[in-house]
C-alpha cells in the first residue's frame, strides 16, 4: 500500500449551528477540527490507508486538540510542525441545505517550514496538495511549492484540489487562477467543485471547462456536483457517476471525503497510474468515493463524519 502525504492547513472550524448561513446573526458556535488536507488524511486513515499530514498548527491548546484528533484517527503526525503563532481558525455558518459561509482568521498554517529530508519519502508514493490557504503566501506557500517539485522528481502520483474559498480571494481571483495552473499542469489527478472548474477554466459549460483544464495538462479530472454525483473527465471520455441519496445537514468536508476515499483506493494499487489507463476501474472507485462524500454530509463537522470501511460497505 502506498502512503499518501497530505500537505496544507489544519485548523479549527467554529460551526454556527441552527441559524441559517448568515454569520452576522450567529451567536453559538461548536468547535470542530478542520482543514481540507487534514480532512483528506483522516478520510484515508479511517478507511485503513496510510496517510501522513504535513502542516503547521500553533503551540496552543487548539493546536494540541487538532493533532490529537489526527492521531486518534490514525493519521501519522510525525511531520506536523508547531508554531508560536496561534492556530488558524475558520468560522462557518450553515444553511438548511448544508451549504456554508466562511470567515477565516489565519494563523499558524502559514508558518510551515520546508524540510528537504522528506523528498526521498515521496518516492513512488502519493502526494495530495490542498490549496485552501497554501497559495496565500508565507512559509506554507514556499514549502508547498518545493514539496510539489520534490513530488515531481520522485515519481510520485500527484493529486491537487484548489479548495477555492471566495472569502480569501476577493478581488484577487486572477492571482489564484494563475497560481493554480502551475499545479493543474503537472498533477495526475485534479479534483474540482463545479465553481472551481468554471473559475479556473473561464468556461461556464462543464464539459468545455474540463477540456480547457485538460489542455493545461492534467490527464484526470473529477468534478464533484453534490447530490448530482461526480463528472469524471479524461482527454477521451466524460462520464457522470451518480451518488446515493441522503439528507445533508453539513456539506463541510464532503469533497475531502470524496478525494480521500478515491486516493485510498488508488493507494492500494501496485501502480497508481493504472487509474489513468483503466476507465472501468476508475469509475468503480469514483462510485465508492461518492458514497463516502454523501455519508459525510449527514453529520456535523468534517472529520467526525467521515466513514470507516464498515459504514462505507453498509451504504453501498
Please give a structural write-up.
The chain has 316 residues and is of the alpha/beta class. The chain has one domain: Ribokinase (UDP-N-acetylmuramoyl-L-alanine:D-glutamate ligase). It is built from ten helices and 14 strands. It has helices at residues 36-46, 61-72, 138-153, 173-186, 194-201, 206-216, 254-267, 279-296, 302-305, 309-315, and strands at residues 3-7, 11-16, 29-34, 50-54, 56-58, 81-83, 89-94, 100-105, 126-130, 157-161, 189-193, 220-224, 230-233, 238-241. It has an eight-stranded mixed sheet with strand order 4-1-9-10-11-12-13-14, sandwiched between helices. It has a four-stranded mixed sheet with strand order 3-2-7-8. β10, α4 (173-186) and β11 form a beta-alpha-beta unit. The chain is globular and about 50 Å long. The mean pLDDT is 93.
Strand content: 15-25%
Q: Can you say what the CATH homologous superfamily is?
A: Ribokinase
CATH topology: UDP-N-acetylmuramoyl-L-alanine:D-glutamate ligase
Order of helices and strands: EEEHEEHEEEEHEHEHHEEEHHHH
Distance between the termini: 23 Å
Fraction of residues in H or I helices:
25-40%
Q: What CATH first level would be assigned?
A: Alpha Beta
Could you describe the largest sheet, including whether it forms a barrel? 8 strands, mixed
Low-pLDDT sequence parts: none
Count of distinct strands? 14
Shape field? globular
Average pLDDT = 93
Number of domains: 1
Which strand order do you get reading across the main beta sheet?
A: 4-1-9-10-11-12-13-14
Structural class: alpha/beta
| Rg, nearest Å | 18 Å
Number of contiguous helices? 10
What CATH architecture label applies? 3-Layer(aba) Sandwich
